[in-house]
């Protein structure tokens, strides 16, 4: 039986245009069916490997790890830049300075294992050893162990979180992305609403972003130094003065109010500066006092025109508490302004107490309780010595550092005043029991003239306790302080 001719040798049919070809041979069918299963499933052309028993070229590439593919590519590049012959590094002639002695057509295939050999001008007298990175990836087999850092025990989960964030931020910029931290671009939004939104709200929005940056920076300073140097606060105050004309879209009482609130937030950090790093503390104290006074006056104006304080949100009340504490604490210190008389101080205290009561919306809320604290302290201040510093601070409270210090000082002062009056009353009772007939002749109205510790004359009725109207349980117990229950005004 004659063999079947191939397709090229098969005679053409003479039956007109519809030419037919002889059926393919069994050898051709076998050649078409040698494609591997993966290539047939993917419906791609299969390129068989020249080595018998090895997978096709496509499957071999898919099975090669990414690191190995990268190594092969680097070896190919290295062979083009610095070709090899017989796996030996060619010596570059010092006489002719030829860098590429072998033409690209003469390059050997990139099948050797040499990677990144040193160039001729960096080679040491000894033969450098080639470094071939391992394709094996190290996998984490156990959780991170806790470690002692700076005297504190840091858990393994925290360590993982720290380094994952650092790695993400370091890698992001190399990939063309901003670091992954809280940020937003509000330029388009402001351009859209600048003609419809109240200009004061845009000013408030810009100042809030400034305050966020301020408190973030101050928190870092406090964490590192337990305080903020005076020079740092001065730099932020200078930046605020540069920002003021840029964010002021219209001059109104409310825009001035929010400007004073932001300015007071900056100046309050002068009280957190360490004692050895504030040479201009007296001057800065007076400037902060004036800012607080201007804030109170502007708030009074806004209340008379639009009842801002009657409908004020919490942040307005907090700003007024900060200013009020600074004013009353400074007036009860040796750093009080010299030009203020006792009557002027009474006017300032009356304004402060009036504002805080105006912020109240229901009985026994925070404005009411805060005004009771300040009013009670101011009513018994003559029984107490003046403070050496105008205002102190609790650095850990950051934005509310001065308020918490003042409220704690007021509480301690009220306790001291209570002890003084209790002791005075006991002394009067003992004197009357010992000399029952010595009363009434020399004191017609039963009034004793006293000179307090500050040198101020006070009249005190021995039969009436000047602190009898004070709710001590509310001041000492209800108003929890740090370490003694709830904290006044809540978290900072």
UniProtKB/TrEMBL annotation:
Signal peptide: none annotated. Residues 1-30 are annotated as: Disordered. The keyword DNA damage does not apply. It comes from the Eukaryota. CDD domains: GAL4. Residues 34-63 form the Zn(2)-C6 fungal-type domain. InterPro entries: prtT (IPR051089), Zn2-C6_fun-type_DNA-bd_sf (IPR036864), Zn2Cys6_DnaBD (IPR001138). This is Zn(2)-C6 fungal-type domain-containing protein. It comes from Fusarium oxysporum f. sp. cubense.
